[in-house]
Amino acid sequence: MLEVNKLNVGYGQSPVIHDLSFTVRDQEILAIMGRNGMGKTTLLKALLGILPSRSGSIKLAEREISGLSSHERVRQGIAFVPQGRMIFPSLTVTENILAGARALVSQGVWDEIYALFPALHEMRKRAGGDLSGGQQQQLAIARALVSNPKVLVLDEPTEGIQPSIIKDIARALKEIRKMRKLAIVVSEQVVSFMMEVCDRTFVIERGRFVHEILRENLDARQMKALLSI
User: Fold this and answer.
1) Which of 8, 23, 164, 210 is least buried, going by the fewest C-beta atoms within 10 A?
2) Strand bridging mode 183-188 / 29-33
3) Which of 170, 172, 43, 160 has its CA nearest to residue 114?
4) In whole angstroms, what is the distance from residue 205 CA to residue 213 CA?
């Protein structure tokens, strides 16, 4: 579903991502783990076109998108839930969700979103800024889903969220994959969350993948050790 080949990304004269190549299979949940400053967010921003790549290829459903702008990539089927959520605090929950839509949102889509996140239905007329951090994260995911993506990309979705809500988000991502038949790429530092949701994990170190681990080979102590080096 997503194919990245020899991707190079940087800021000014400083390279950050070095010749990264990887694929994300249809309906796979891929986790990218690493310490702060190792390139996770830079990589995701490059996938979305928020940050231009210096060289390399990005293909979405076999179509080259590396030369497209961010909004054109969204039209092609990639959606982003940014770090920090970035919802519109003065808009209602409903208005925030509609901000991510590319066309009229059907009743079926609303039903899916509210089945995934019942709190959003209860608070649909409230301002986004009135929601808790966990509810705002649910809102950011809902906003991304209304664009009907083929690939959903999330940057550290558990940041600043209490453990009980982290478990809810893990369950929601697995349900979204099942419901929408899409692929998911998630950057993360919380090992328990990653082990709950992912099929495969890459560990990134200074802009390069240094480990690739399949779900059946995941070990929490090993992962925590890798992330503490």
Assistant:
1) 164
2) parallel
3) 172
4) 15
Neighbour count for residue 20 (Cβ, 10 Å):
22
Task: Return the pLDDT at 229.
Answer: 58
Q: String of b and e for 72-109 (b: at least 16 CB within 10 Å)?
A: ebbebbbbbbbbebebeeeebbbebbeebeeeebeeeb
Greatest Cα pair distance in the chain: 49
- Report percent pLDDT > 90 for the chain: 77
Looking at residue 180, its amino acid is: R
Could you tell me the CATH number of the domain that includes residue 47? 3.40.50.300
- Of 10-14, 198-202, 216-220, the range with the lowest mean pLDDT is 216-220
d(CA 177, CA 196) in angstroms, rounded, equals 14
The CA distance from 74 to 102, in Å, is 9
Supply 17's token pair: 């991502």
Amino acid at 174: K
Answer whether 29's CB lies under 8 Å from 174's CB. yes
Task: At 110, list the tokens.
Answer: 């609303």
pLDDT per position as a tens digit, 97-144: 999 987 788 899 999 999 999 999 999 999 999 999 999 999 999 999
- Asked if 31 and 198 touch (Cβ cutoff 8 Å), the reply is yes
State how many domains the chain has.
Answer: 1
Per the structure, the complete domain to which residue 158 belongs is given by 2-228
